Amino acid sequence: MDSDSEGEFQVKVELTVNGKDVTADVEDRTLLVHFLRDVADLTATNVGCDTTSCGACTVLLDGESVKSCTVLAAQADGRSVTTLEGLASDAGEMHPVQRAFHEEHGLQCGYCTPGMVMAIVSLLKENPSPTEAEVRQGLEGNICRCTGYHNIVKAALAASRTASSSEGASK
Amino acid sequence: MIPPSFTYARATSVDEAIALAAEHGEDAKYLAGGQSLLPLMKLRFAAPTVLIDLGRVTELSYVRDEGTYVAVGALTRHHDVANSELLLADIPLLAHVAEAVGDPQIRHRGTIGGSVAHADAAADLPAALLALGATFVVRGESGTRSVPAAEFFKGFFETALEPGELLTEIQVPKPATPAAWSFQKFNKRAIDFAMVGVAVQGTGGPNTGVALINMGSTPLRATAVESALASGASIADAAQLAAEGTNAGSDIHASKAYREHLARVLVRRALEEASSR
After folding, report:
1. Which residue, of A72, B97, B150, B165, is most buried by count of CB atoms within 10 Å of its CB?
2. Would an 8 Å CB–CB cutoff place A9 in contact with chain B?
3. Cα-Cα-Cα-Cα dihedral sign, residues B256, B262, B268, B270
């Protein structure tokens, strides 16, 4: 265990998390998810399977979904991370995907929800008007143990409609 | 799970990466997207003492038209391979197989070179690159060399890469009939590795490339099928030879006999699809 002793290897990590700078010296092996939860104190991002399967730890790295249990904090150094906490506006207004989860009852126990929401935000950025099949395909990396997929997919589709109609209104 | 302790080192260029590998020796490992290596480290299947992060080596992220072939930088992410207009037009098999890897999150991090160098017999991209007859460019302290895909995969997670060598580029010849491709991935759940998979490039005649996933300790070419097609065998007859020269294992997902059956069925389906597209 000597080689595992705290502080033997240290790396400086500077991230922009939800628009704010977070800097810390951490062990080289620190995973992004633990940096977010334990250093940045942002605990919406859950650790589920811890094996790159379930997607509960999904966050956005430079705007794209990644599984933060399978990214080193050091790999993300200098880059921008968005977690669920960073989605709502400063005035507290929910992000369209969050609102859609609320309206479509897109959660049961809620454990997978932060990861699902972040995966959908990334999916809609790449494909603003997905079909139902594309949503299901796009969520292949996120597992809901309550098997509540139906309403999660409904929420994703509702969010895409909201986004496209508000875009239409502003034109 | 947290990986065992290691020292993190960061390269910003190929030269720097190779110098770091030479400095740290055989206990160092290159880290590309980390989507295979980090899970292995968490499970203690791998415990390198130094990780050389290639994430900033942006010079190796590209998809370039080189006339008769397409050059793909080793650090090009699956997401970028899957969405490359050049590949979708000229080598659609490669773009579609990249899209079949893992899930969107994994494709945002994982790289084509990482997948090739990791050399998992169950991985999708190595088989596609075998069927396409790709060549891998590797660079080490003593210079650059090219290794054909057919000579690259040596054994269980073992490649032709020498210690310290870095895979830098994947050169994929443009197929004569780009649309004549098929990729069959048989699995039980969405993000599982293929229980058995088949990549085909060609119309089912001579020069048709057929490669198998998870039918031995390395990604494999179905050479018996390829030679039968070259000498004029029908698709149905050639596909019957799909398990020849393979060495599939048995595990909780499938027995060896079932994998051999799957190989025959999937090769037939793949050849039929490729020849009718």
Report:
1. B97
2. yes
3. negative
CB contacts of A8 in chain B (<8 Å) are 5
Domain B7-53 adopts which CATH fold? 3.30.43
Separation CA A165–CA B13 (nearest Å): 45
* Buried/exposed code over B70-103 (b: 16+ C-beta within 10 A; e: otherwise): bbbbbbbbbbbbbbbeebbebbbbbbbbbbbbbb
* SS3 label, residue B178: coil
Interface residue of B36, B78, B103 to substitute, partner A, most A CBs within 10 Å:
B103
Residues A73 and A10 placed together within one structural domain of the fold: yes
- A134 and B CB contact within 8 Å: no
The shortest CB-CB distance from A50 to any of B1, B8, B102 is to: B1
Classify domain B181-276 at the CATH superfamily level: CO dehydrogenase flavoprotein, C-terminal domain (3.30.390.50)
CA-CA distance, A100 to A109, in Å (whole number)? 17
- Check CB contact under 8 Å for A65 and B104: yes
The Cα–Cα gap between B84 and B99 comes to 11
User: What are the tokens at B149?
Assistant: 């895909």
Using a CB-CB distance cutoff of 8 angstroms, which residues of chain A are in contact with residue B42?
A: 50-51
| 3-state SS class at A119 | helix
* Residue (of A29, A12, A30) closest to A21 by Cα position: A12
Are the C-beta atoms of B73 and B82 separated by less than 8 Å?
no
Calculate how close chain A gets to B49, using CA atoms only, in Å.
Answer: 10
Residue-range definition of the domain harbouring residue A77: 2-86
Residue A123 contacts B where some CB pair is shorter than 8 Å:
yes
For the entire predicted model, the pTM comes to 0.95
Q: Locate tokens 């929401």: which residue? A: A117
CA distance A125 to chain B (A): 12
Measured from the Cβ of residue B182, the count of other Cβ atoms closer than 10 Å reads 24
Contact across the interface for A3 and B4, Cβ inside 8 Å: yes
- pLDDT, tens digit, 9 for 90 and up, residues B246-272: 999 999 999 999 999 999 999 999 999
B128-171: per-residue pLDDT in tens? 999 999 999 999 999 999 999 999 999 999 999 999 999 999 99
Q: Indicate yes or no: CB of A66 within 8 angstroms of CB of B109.
A: yes
Q: Is B1 helix (H, G, I), strand (E, B) or coil?
A: coil
Does residue A113 lie in a domain region? yes
